[in-house]
Amino acid sequence: MGYKAKFRVWRGEGGEGRLEDFTVEVNEGEVVLDIIHRLQATQAPDLAVRWNCKAGKCGSCSMEINGKPRLGCMTRMSTFGEDETITVTPMRTFPVIKDLVTDVSFNYAKAREIPSFTPPAGVEPGEYRMQQIDVERSQEFRKCIECFMCNNVCHVIRDHEENKPAFAGPRFLMRIAELDMHPYDVVDRKDSAQEDHGLGFCNITKCCTEVCPEHIKITDNALIPMKERVVDRKYDPLVWLGNKIFKRTGSKS
Amino acid sequence: MTQTTADNPAPARRQRAQIKERTLRTDQWWRYPLVTFIIFTAFLVYATWAIFDNDFFVAPYHAPFASPCLAEAVCEPDARLFGWAPLGDWYTWPPGLLILGLPAGFRFTCYYYRKAYYRGFWLSPPACAVNEPHSKYTGESRFPLILQNVHRYFFYAAIVIGLILAYDAVKALIEKPGGVGTWVLIVNAILINLYTLSCHSCRHITAGRLNHFSKHPIRYRAWGFVSKLNAKHQELALVSMFSVMGADLYVRLVAKGVLTFPFA
């Protein structure tokens, strides 16, 4: 059975805009993105929304629904009461292009700052030999669909625009952890994680984990292990002494 | 449109959606920080009282907040660890003052507790997608919060404290196996040690720091075990906090003669 739902949708270009009220039909089994599309079709043909797969795998339709970062295509209307007003706004951390579409190029700039996977010299593609248990930790992080909701919700940049140049955000700190844990990557990433990408800004409040639509344990499995690796490198005199005594390089074990 | 944060921060701020509300969340997001604040404050109040309370031992029970008792003047012979009291009779302050800094430091720098009190006490942030009230933020990148990185040293100390609590429980089991207090101490020792082993630093030390698990099969198995515990770290942190508080209070009530039923 369908019903009429009350929606408030943020409309505007650049940073200027307002919440507009709509009453729109909802049918059984629909998700928020369906309703946004119905608004486009029936009441607001110029409403801008970025979307692609409608299956929770492309990471395009990130938005904030009743204040929470969510994928529009994975948020069922049945999770709301029929008399509830549903507020839909663009991601707050990134500049707005139009309506619900944000400019997420901050994330692409941060991605480019991370040195790519670097195998040992003399090992050619096809010659890598790794056991499953050596790579399965990193495989969890490969589930990331780059919806950037973790970076959006992280208060380090959400509430402090001035931290953006110094902080890569959980998505890319997770990428650094992924590469640092990789058995065939030879780049030492611990110092740069702390100094260049702002791992120290993270106060592990786990919002990135809470919003991840792929349920990646970003904080527990990537950020905290990376913090511990940084402690090995920079703040633990016993590890430093052990490296000296046993003549370990201290980079990759 | 190009991103302008790196070279021109101010305009980028203006380009965000200008929404005045601190949050548009409609759920009860304030419950988590409020409950955290109440529980942790209650724990701090109890711990402060317990430190200065001298009824911490009644054979064979030893209150966890005062164990080990290391001072000759304030610890009767049965209360001393292996009969050992390295501090002479010059020390007359409460014995808890000597050791409570170690488990307190372990919990204060614990990754779970950090999340909880950053949210509940410092409101940084109070909840996800709720603006924090601070105008500046440097997190754990500078003094003093950079000191959180000493967590693993408190973990080493917590292992020792956990073993001592286990010793106290076993001693009580041998001397009074049917006592309710014995089982209170046993349950508490188990929970404290599970919480200690589930620590993120423990997970890192067992094998998390390695990149080639296949070359270290024993450490890998240990890492797998700790990882399973680690997934319950928050629950263990809270349950063990209640258990240590409950066990401590129980022993003190027996020592004060408040609880006098048979098998107490």
From TrEMBL, chain A:
<comment type="pathway">
    <text>Carbohydrate metabolism; tricarboxylic acid cycle.</text>
</comment>
<dbReference type="InterPro" id="IPR012675">
    <property type="entry name" value="Beta-grasp_dom_sf"/>
</dbReference>
<dbReference type="GO" id="GO:0046872">
    <property type="term" value="F:metal ion binding"/>
</dbReference>
<feature type="domain" description="2Fe-2S ferredoxin-type">
    <location>
        <begin position="5"/>
        <end position="92"/>
    </location>
</feature>
<dbReference type="InterPro" id="IPR050573">
    <property type="entry name" value="SDH/FRD_Iron-Sulfur"/>
</dbReference>
<dbReference type="GO" id="GO:0022904">
    <property type="term" value="P:respiratory electron transport chain"/>
</dbReference>
<dbReference type="GO" id="GO:0051539">
    <property type="term" value="F:4 iron, 4 sulfur cluster binding"/>
</dbReference>
<keyword id="KW-0479">Metal-binding</keyword>
<dbReference type="InterPro" id="IPR001041">
    <property type="entry name" value="2Fe-2S_ferredoxin-type"/>
</dbReference>
<dbReference type="InterPro" id="IPR009051">
    <property type="entry name" value="Helical_ferredxn"/>
</dbReference>
<dbReference type="GO" id="GO:0006099">
    <property type="term" value="P:tricarboxylic acid cycle"/>
</dbReference>
<dbReference type="GO" id="GO:0051537">
    <property type="term" value="F:2 iron, 2 sulfur cluster binding"/>
</dbReference>
<keyword id="KW-0411">Iron-sulfur</keyword>
<dbReference type="InterPro" id="IPR017896">
    <property type="entry name" value="4Fe4S_Fe-S-bd"/>
</dbReference>
<keyword id="KW-0001">2Fe-2S</keyword>
<dbReference type="GO" id="GO:0016491">
    <property type="term" value="F:oxidoreductase activity"/>
</dbReference>
<dbReference type="GO" id="GO:0005886">
    <property type="term" value="C:plasma membrane"/>
</dbReference>
<keyword id="KW-0004">4Fe-4S</keyword>
<dbReference type="InterPro" id="IPR025192">
    <property type="entry name" value="Succ_DH/fum_Rdtase_N"/>
</dbReference>
<keyword id="KW-0560">Oxidoreductase</keyword>
<dbReference type="Pfam" id="PF13183">
    <property type="entry name" value="Fer4_8"/>
</dbReference>
<dbReference type="InterPro" id="IPR036010">
    <property type="entry name" value="2Fe-2S_ferredoxin-like_sf"/>
</dbReference>
UniProtKB/TrEMBL annotation, chain B:
<keyword id="KW-1133">Transmembrane helix</keyword>
<protein>
    <recommendedName>
        <fullName>Integral membrane protein</fullName>
    </recommendedName>
</protein>
<keyword id="KW-0472">Membrane</keyword>
<feature type="transmembrane region" description="Helical">
    <location>
        <begin position="90"/>
        <end position="113"/>
    </location>
</feature>
<feature type="transmembrane region" description="Helical">
    <location>
        <begin position="180"/>
        <end position="197"/>
    </location>
</feature>
<keyword id="KW-0812">Transmembrane</keyword>
<feature type="transmembrane region" description="Helical">
    <location>
        <begin position="153"/>
        <end position="174"/>
    </location>
</feature>
<feature type="transmembrane region" description="Helical">
    <location>
        <begin position="29"/>
        <end position="52"/>
    </location>
</feature>
